[in-house]
Amino acid sequence: MSEHLRTALRLAADGLPVLPLRRGKLPFGNCPTCARNACGGRPNMKNPGTCTCPQPCHAWAAATTDPDVLASPAWASAWQRAAAIAYHPGGAGVTVVDLDDPAAVHWARTTLPATRTVPTTRGEHWIYRGTMPSANAVRPGIDIKSLATYARWLDNGVGATTPLPDSVRALAVKEPAPAHKAAQSLTVPLRGHGVECPHRTPTFLERGITMGVQRISEARSAVHATVYRTFLAVLSTHGRCGCLTDTHVSRLFTAAQAKGESPRHCTDAWTNALATLGL
After folding, report:
1. DSSP for 54-119?
2. Cβ within 8 Å of residue 103, ≥6 positions away
3. What's the pLDDT band for 48 if we cut at 50, 70, 90?
């Protein structure tokens, strides 16, 4: 029995749906029966662990906790050639924020709630309790891995300590259609919502606004989406206690307009973000 298979069986016993990865951190290809989706278009992708193919098939949907499947003769060749182990985060009830470089790690440390952190070759995995749709390139060097994808298992484990925050969910949200009859002023005043202020010091709020301005200013593409996601992230963290002022909002709008956004689009994006969060 290979070392990877022994580890996989141990992880499966703990409830983690796992699969082998080949060189390049890629899943093994579909079995001959399912090659080129001959089986009818990956019918098991919504139900990981239910694939009835004889080999580890359909990428992340092959992930399973069944020891009989993992140790079956049909999977033996894959485990012998495996270069690593992967797991299905959504199947494990977690979300992985995959930070692929030092800049992304710095952004997370100054923006996201602390949680279980696992070092990777080039960055870190931040693991939260809860699931959400997966999304790639939500900002430079950052992918979100949860439902319908796989993540590499690393020796430090995958246990999560912090519930999945709105600020992570906001990263994967696409901007909805512009709100009807949105106000045209540059600022949209906020009111407190009876929520105790979570800001430990004024520096916490200032850092959030500064990071928002920086994120908008550094956008090289998808500026519309970047502006909306930034507004959503700022509001999800700072929008419920009434601490945001017109001055804070104006700084965000000014950064967006410096990237070519119109005052109308800024106001529409802000109004949509408010509506999405129920503010």
Report:
1. SSS-SGGGG-B--HHHHTSHHHHHHHHH-SEEEE-TGGGTEEEEEE-SHHHHHHHHHHSPP-EEEE
2. 140, 141
3. low
Please tell me the distance from the alpha carbon of residue 76 to that of residue 52, in angstroms, as a whole number.
16
Backbone angles phi, psi at 144, to 5 degrees: -115, 125
Residue in the structure block whose two tokens are 């298992």 = 153
CA distance 275 to 271: 6
Give the lowest-confidence range in 74-88, 101-115, 124-138, 186-200.
186-200
Question: Any idea which residue has 């800001």 for tokens?
Answer: 199
pLDDT at 128 exceeding the cut of 70: yes
Strands 84-87 and 151-152: antiparallel
CB 160 within 8 A of CB 132: no
Tokens of 33: 């029966």
Predicted confidence at residue 197, as pLDDT, reads 57
Phi, psi of 133 (to 5 degrees): -60, 140
Assess whether pLDDT exceeds 80 at residue 236: yes
pLDDT average, residue stretch 78-89: 95
Bridge partners, residue 126, by sequence: 97, 117
At 237, the pLDDT band (50, 70, 90 cuts) reads confident
Query: Under a CB-based contact definition with an 8 Å cutoff, are residues 63 and 9 in contact?
Result: no
Residue 173 is given by DSSP the state: P
User: Is residue 64 within 8 Å of residue 49, measured between CB atoms?
Assistant: yes
